[in-house]
Amino acid sequence: MSSEKLVLTAQPREIIGKKVKQLRRKGIVPAIAYGPGSEPVAIQLNERELRFMLMRAGGTQVIELDLGEENIPTLVREVQRDPIRGDIMHVDFYRVDLSVAIAADVPLVIGEQMPAPVEQGLGDIMQNLSAVQVEALPNEIPQELIIEIGHLQEIGDQILASDIALPEGVTLLTPPDEMVLKIDYVQEAPAEEDAEDELSMFDEVVAPEIITERKDDEE
User: Fold this and answer.
1) Helices H, strands E: what count in the chain?
2) Of 5 and 189, which is predicted with more confidence?
3) What residues does each domain of the chain span?
4) Which residue, of 43, 144, 165, 219, has the fewest CB within 10 Å?
5) Per-residue pLDDT for 207 more than 70?
């Protein structure tokens, strides 16, 4: 958990709709800040500063939007990107009350120490959950949760959501009996003959239909 305060400079945005393309060409990203008890605020941010901040904050750390006359504590709710170039197209910030607990999804990270079956090449880690939902004050939401699995000794041993160590002030919302991961047998590679049979199946597949580019009048 990080206690570092993250502040991102933002400006009120007057340009809306299709005209926001003008902003993106100048390296400015349109965004919105919204939340209960307040009107949505259209804002704009410097793309380079935004990229850097998103890398530091992830989806669980509070970002304070500095609008000059007002500072808004927020969590990133959605980041829309160009599917080809990966450019940030729009960001949704959720306004939070730092004194009120909220629900959040926290990523799970497997610890460095591996179980004996995995180290011996006899087992594999079969992960069922990549994140769990917790409740905490916005500034106390963990950036990630470490799952220690070195103590697992046999095939079939598993970690449940209730086994995850949580910091003080953080409550688990995911069902406690939900399986996070288990140690399973190593999946054997298909035999050479089976692999050849699978490849031969592709010879019988009909070529896919070619989809033409969309015409301008369809936009």
Assistant:
1) 4, 14
2) 5
3) 6-95, 102-185
4) 219
5) no
CB 118 within 8 A of CB 58: no
What architecture does CATH give domain 6-95? Beta Barrel (2.40)
- Output the pLDDT for position 211: 38
* Distances, alpha carbon 135 to alpha carbons 68, 151, 172, in Å: 31, 27, 6
pLDDT digits (tens, 9 = 90+) for 14-40: 888 888 888 988 999 999 999 988 899
Going by pLDDT thresholds of 50, 70 and 90, the confidence category of residue 195 is low
Q: What is the pLDDT of residues 44-67, one digit of tens each?
A: 999 999 999 999 998 899 999 999
Specify whether domain 102-185 bears CATH 1.10.10.60. Answer: no
* Selection from 135, 45, 22, 25 nearest residue 92 by Cα: 45
The 8 Å CB, 24+ separation contacts for 113-119 are 113/148, 113/149, 113/150, 114/149, 114/150, 115/149, 115/150, 115/151, 115/152, 115/153, 115/157, 115/183, 116/152, 116/153, 117/152, 117/153, 117/154, 117/155, 117/183, 118/183
* Residue 133 bridge partners (DSSP): 105
